[in-house]
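Ticket opened by: R.M.
Priority: normal
Category: complex prediction / small molecule

The reporter submitted a protein together with iron/sulfur cluster and asked that the result be attached to this ticket for the collaborator who will pick it up next week. Submitted input follows.
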Amino acid sequence: MLREFKILRRHGIQYIPDLRNAKVSDNLTGRPVIDKAITAEEADMVKKVCPAGAINASPFSIDMGKCLFCKECSFMLPNRIRFTNDYKLASNRRENLIIRAGEDKPVQFSHHSVRPEIRRLFRHALKLRQVSAGGDNSCEMELNAAGNVNFDMGRYGIEFVASPRHADGIVITGPVSENMAKALKMTYDAIPEPKIIILAGVDAIRGGMFKNSKAINREFLALHRADLYVPGNPVHPLTFINGVLDLIGVK
Ligand code: SF4
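Result attached by the on-call engineer:
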């Protein structure tokens, strides 16, 4: 018994007590901040190094729905572009993922545009089916971590389930490959109303590096509006959990 106590003491606290205000390392690559004094020449130069087409030069902005968080832009212009460790990046409006020069404020979440039935039905329990639609297993591993002993999103009743019949919504990762397009639709069809759609990671939001590939088929996403966009490459568990809590209306 004494031995077990010693082990527990050595391990310390295994979970994050407050997921809404968790302290994270300064090294976490989160929301970018752009100096409003960035010049047109600098903007053109840095736009060329962005591998994802996430930078708009005029007016200067970074689209987190496309950004790979590779930090190449920041390495090139460290005095103009920096990445904070703000992990609350998710929003229910696609346009809120665009960070403009001179802005340094949290990503906005449009609470009034959440479908009322989502908050009425799922505030205390939300079951999700995850579909990796051509994903590379990075976002999938982070989503898995969201349920582990550290992050423990299950404390809010949020869980992944093994069947779409038991799910309230779908979490899509990956750019949606042609091979997964039918399976994605079948999974979505099997979920009862009101079906939530969450796009996790830059590949799901915009296709990522694969957006021009002939091997992807994003017809499903053209037909259905997402309820939540979670940027990241991959998505951080805290980004995902905080986004879902905003969606279901948990303070
Ligand atoms: S961090 Fe984002 S915006 Fe900057 S170069 Fe990489 S993909 Fe482009």
